[in-house]
Write a structure and sequence with these properties.
The complex is a heterodimer of chains A (473) and B (476).
Chain A (H helix, E strand, L loop, with lengths): L11 H4 L10 E6 L2 E6 H5 L6 H4 L10 E2 L3 H13 L11 H11 L2 H8 L11 E7 L6 E6 L5 E5 L2 E5 L6 E5 L7 E6 L2 E6 L2 E8 L5 E5 L9 E8 L3 E8 L4 E8 L5 E9 L5 H4 L4 E5 L4 E10 L2 E10 L4 E8 L4 E7 L4 E6 L5 E5 L10 E2 L18 E4 L2 E5 L5 E7 L17 E6 L11 E7 L2 E6 L4 E6 L7
Parallel strand pairs in A: 1-3
Antiparallel strand pairs in A: 1-2, 4-31, 5-6, 6-7, 7-8, 9-10, 10-11, 11-12, 13-14, 14-15, 15-16, 17-18, 18-19, 19-20, 21-22, 22-23, 23-24, 25-26, 26-27, 27-28, 29-30, 30-31
Chain B lengths: L1 H12 L3 E6 L2 E6 H4 L7 H6 L9 E3 L3 H13 L11 H11 L2 H8 L9 E7 L9 E3 L7 E5 L2 E5 L5 E6 L7 E6 L2 E5 L6 E5 L4 E6 L13 E7 L3 E7 L5 E7 L5 E8 L11 E5 L4 E10 L2 E10 L5 E7 L12 E7 L4 E6 L5 E5 L9 E3 L17 E6 L2 E6 L2 E7 L18 E5 L11 E7 L2 E6 L5 E6 L6 E2 L2
Parallel strand pairs in B: 1-3
Antiparallel strand pairs in B: 1-2, 4-31, 5-6, 6-7, 7-8, 9-10, 10-11, 11-12, 13-14, 14-15, 15-16, 17-18, 18-19, 19-20, 21-22, 22-23, 23-24, 25-26, 26-27, 27-28, 29-30, 30-31
Helix pairs in contact in B: 5-6
The chains are: A mainly beta (473), B mainly beta (476).
Chain lengths: 473, 476
């Protein structure tokens, strides 16, 4: 083999390539004919599985050669050195960088620099992308992973977008219309429908069903899925029997999908509406080790619902809230804020209840000023409320989205500013610039990585809101 | 995936290297990379030269395009810098280096999937733009359009290659029977005509005649199909007597005649659709007419060697048909999975029959289960077209385009051994509501990984593809 380089035809970058002491930390690499110098420490940041950290394992005297594009490598090296991409990376497609980072085994660093949940800035979100969905089914369910990949169920299909939102795959499922979807990993999701028996765990890359979970109900009718939730260990599914006369929450092991426990089993006799309401929302509350299950029912006497906190080991209810007046049209929990939030279906107002002060009385505290109540109108119907980070997001009639945030108030502050200090202070803002306002009614809100995802009624697309990256703009 | 990459990377570390000077710019790569175009390529030949580090091999070509192509050889994908060049430039350059196969595999769309397809192009010829017939060529995604007596060829990049004028005033059937030869038929002019595309010349005609029957005269062609050795064309005389002629593909001479019939009733009208089923050497023919009492028609399968009818069905049929009064509006054959598919005119359901198990009533009916498919009332009326492509069934109803696709089974399920069951097919729209307003779908055909759709009295032809790209639109 000839020496790594010799002779007069070298480019100028070769000339500043002094002979290196093999003991030195400084190393040289030849990538596609260009020479780069860096340190062993920098290369070690790529991780032990990466090609770059294994380059100098053997004591070769030659400068190692990598047969890849040198321009892209210079970006990869910058990413290793600083943890973020230099602005000259804008000359390339993200897809180039992704495939290059996969080659060097450092895609996780790239994801970290571009789609990290810590980069989520609620006050700096703008509507930036539209992800179109093919076909005519509007999105019915949306689920995300922590680093911003997103799966959308529309009709019987699931379209998955990768964390960079550059690539998509669509699979066809056995469902005629999926109603619940939960991502278990970037390539695995659990899906269920209110008109199709069984919960299916699907491989989203190839469209295969990994397993089908059914609830063996007493009437031996089908078991439809009302809600799906997960903790780090368990998968929770709210089932209702096909005859709608019993419901239950099943707990499965997240690795093996074998049943672990069954809680909240209701057989319905007579006119007991409360037990007839299956849970339509399941959230794992890690800080309290409880499963929050909530559901509501709209009948001639108005909307009624309940919110239950289950101890999943014993199957007991730790705390329950019956919603008889101004029941939630949607509710959410924020562990960061230690509170649950709801939109009242008749008033349309946003309420919060502090998890630390749950007692026997009515825990709901109105946020903001009371609006004029329009009699008989369900002002809050169809509203969506979700929390992410330290904020709460709430959709309004006309398609606008409100951002509720807690104002940090010094405990010993004066009362002159009109602040009621015995309470926590929440204030709202309408998200988006004037051109972003409006649009169809919001059907789903979801969050992942540094992005917010919005779907709207009758629109076969997903709206992406993100904050401008400080370094790329 | 990551581990594979690392292995791949480790292999490249200790490989023989080569330096190239392309148009004054130096490149360094490995011999195996440069040889990935195959032993016939120019780059392979260059890699066999004796190497001298002081004097890298000089190639007098543009270095910018070469750097794109070198990235392609290294990664098997086109870098974004390729966008600075047109597809034509890239292909020309790739052909020079002998690596066009690598480029082709990198830019060809992924396998067509009707549940996830969108319009990528609308090909519009510059004169007489209403397409009267088209043929999607030999499966590389290229297409030949017949419009106003002209034929235009668009290559696999959908770039206009050339247009020739034929003597026909209107071409209503076209089939690419050789890579450069099209067989043409017309509603208005008799005979089957062959045009050589590269020379633009008429190279022959076939006409149906019978020395014993002077009435067999001036027959027009209604459908064309081809097998590796023969061309099949359905001919119809002015007095409606009709037949399918078998024409030898190399001599363009008529060799035999299949299924001559009087054409006096719906059961004996000329075939409007012909297709060759290679696996069993059977020719499929069908005819559908729509009259005051609804649809009627037949499906017939001929053994192409003996000329015998292997199987046939007529609708509305007599006897056991469980779907009386719901005769098919269109029928097509899926040669990949050996199935016949028909669309029922009244119910709108899809009927499927296994060609290997045809009997008196082989149809299994697949029902529509998608609640999002909207109003069922208007189904059954109007124009229905069906086309089988990539184990999917594309259906055009008036202006709407839908797809029936088979749902993947369980991971370890044995898919093929199961009988056709209605549970395994799902129906979805391919298009958006606004797409369907452009006009009534006239013809659907797949080729390569593209689906081509033409509409009544609408200029041009739509090209649908599946893409892995998210198609995200920035609205900042």
């Amino acid at each position: 083999m000839p020496p790594p380089f010799s002779g007069s035809t070298c480019s100028s970058s070769d000339l500043i390539h002094p002979p290196l002491n093999p003991e030195s930390n400084i190393v040289a690499i030849n990538v596609g004919g260009h020479f780069f110098q860096t340190t062993k420490q920098t290369l070690a940041l790529a991780g032990s599985k990466s090609l770059l950290s294994t380059l100098f394992d053997s004591s070769q005297s030659d400068v190692p050669f990598i047969d890849r594009d040198p321009d892209l490598f210079s970006l990869i090296l910058s990413l290793l050195r600083t943890g973020y991409l230099p602005s000259k990376a804008k000359a390339f497609d993200l897809q180039d960088l992704i495939s290059e980072s996969q080659f060097y085994g450092i895609e996780s660093l790239l994801i970290n620099s571009l789609s990290n949940p810590s980069q989520f800035e609620a006050f700096n979100l703008e509507k930036s992308l539209i992800l179109p969905l093919n076909g005519r089914d509007p999105p019915a369910a949306i689920t995300t992973t922590p680093f911003g990949s997103v799966h959308v169920a529309h009709g019987g299909k699931i379209t998955s977008f990768d964390w960079s939102l550059q690539r998509k795959t669509t699979i066809l499922t056995q469902f005629s219309a999926i109603d619940s979807l939960l991502a278990l990993s970037p390539s695995v999701a659990a899906a269920g429908a209110t008109d199709f028996s069984g919960l299916q765990v699907l491989d989203l890359d190839i469209g295969h069903v990994r397993t089908i979970l059914n609830w063996e109900n007493v009437t031996r009718s089908s078991s439809t899925v009302q809600a799906i939730g997960a903790s780090s260990q368990f998968l929770f599914t709210s089932f209702e029997s096909g005859r709608r006369n019993s419901n239950s929450i099943m707990i499965y092991d997240l690795q093996t999908f074998s049943p672990v426990n069954e809680i909240g089993h209701n057989e319905i006799f007579g006119a007991d509406i409360d037990s007839a309401i299956p849970a339509t929302m399941l959230n794992w509350v890690a800080g309290y080790n409880l499963l929050m299950a909530s559901g509501s029912h709209s009948g001639p006497s108005g909307v009624q619902g309940n919110i239950k906190f289950w101890d999943i080991r014993t199957g007991n209810i730790a705390w329950e809230l019956k919603e008889k007046v101004d029941c939630f049209s949607d509710m959410t929990i924020s562990e960061n804020l230690s509170a649950i939030f709801k939109i009242g279906v008749s008033s349309g107002e946003v309420y919060s209840a502090d998890l630390r002060k749950l007692g026997d009385g009515n825990p709901w505290i109105l946020l903001g000023d009371r609006m004029k109540v329009v009699n008989g109108k369900r002002a809050g119907a169809g509203g969506k409320i979700e929390s992410y980070g330290n904020q709460v997001f709430c959709s309004r009639e006309g398609g606008t989205i409100e951002l509720w945030s807690e104002v940090a108030v010094e405990n010993g502050g004066s009362k002159e500013g009109g602040l009621r200090l015995e309470e926590r202070v929440f204030r709202k803002n309408v998200m988006g610039r004037v051109k972003d306002l409006g649009g169809g009614r919001v059907t789903k809100l979801a969050f992942g990585g540094n992005k917010m995802f919005v779907t709207r009624k009758d629109q076969q697309s997903v709206e992406v809101w993100q904050s401008t990256n400080k370094r790329s703009s | 995936m990551e581990d594979e990459n690392i292995q791949l990377a480790n292999r490249t570390l200790n490989q023989e290297r080569i330096k190239l000077n392309v148009g004054g710019k130096l490149f360094e790569t490995t011999v195996s990379t440069i040889r990935s175009g195959g032993p016939e390529s120019l780059l392979y030949a260059l890699s066999n030269r004796p190497r001298d580090d002081r004097n890298p091999i000089f190639i007098d070509r543009d270095p910018e395009i070469f750097s794109v192509l070198l990235s392609l050889l290294r990664t098997n994908r086109l870098p974004s810098s390729a966008r600075r060049f047109s597809k034509q430039e890239l292909f020309d350059e790739a052909i020079f280096y002998g690596i066009e196969a690598n480029l082709k595999s990198a830019i060809s769309p992924p396998s067509f999937d009707g549940i996830d397809a969108s319009i990528v192009a609308n090909i519009r010829p510059t004169s007489d733009g209403v397409v009267s017939a088209f043929t999607a060529g030999d499966g590389d995604g290229s297409i030949w359009l017949a419009h106003g007596g002209q034929i235009s060829c668009y290559d696999r990049n959908l770039i206009h290659d050339r247009t020739i004028r034929t003597h026909l005033e209107e071409i209503t059937s076209i089939r690419r029977v050789w890579p450069e030869i099209a067989a043409l038929g017309s509603d208005a002019t008799s005979g089957l005509h062959y045009y050589n595309f590269s020379s633009g010349r008429h190279i022959g005609s076939s006409n149906w005649s019978d020395p014993n029957d002077p009435r067999i005269y001036k027959a027009r062609v209604t459908a064309i199909a081809d097998s590796p050795t023969s061309i099949f064309a359905a001919f119809e005389c002015a007095h409606r007597e009709n037949s399918v002629l078998v024409i030898d593909q190399s001599t363009l001479q008529i060799t035999s005649e299949l299924g001559r019939q009087l054409g006096s009733s719906a059961k004996s009208t000329v075939a409007g659709k012909l297709a060759w089923i290679p696996e069993t050497s059977v020719l499929f023919g069908s005819s559908v007419t729509c009259g005051a009492f609804g649809y009627s028609g037949y499906v017939r399968l001929w053994d192409s060697r003996s000329g015998d009818v292997v199987w046939e069905t007529n609708e509305p049929g007599s006897g056991r048909s469980s779907r009386f009064g719901d005769s098919f509006a269109d029928v097509d054959v899926d040669v990949e999975s050996m199935k016949l598919f028909k669309i029922c005119s009244k119910s709108g359901d899809l009927g499927v029959a296994d060609i290997r198990k045809l009997g008196d009533d082989p149809w299994v009916y697949l029902k529509d289960k998608n609640p999002g498919m909207g109003n069922t009332g208007r189904r059954g009326s109007g124009n229905i077209k069906i086309h089988c492509f990539r184990k999917q069934v594309l259906v055009g109803r008036e202006g709407e385009l839908e797809v029936w696709s088979r749902v993947e089974e369980r991971e370890n399920g044995v898919e093929e051994s199961k009988d056709i069951g209605e549970d395994f097919y799902r129906r979805n729209y391919v298009d958006k509501a606004e797409d369907s307003e452009r006009g009534i779908i006239k013809e659907i055909e797949g080729g390569g990984d593209r689906l081509f759709v033409s509409r009544e009295n609408v200029e041009g032809i739509e090209v649908w593809e599946t893409s892995k790209s998210s198609g995200a639109v920035s609205i900042l």
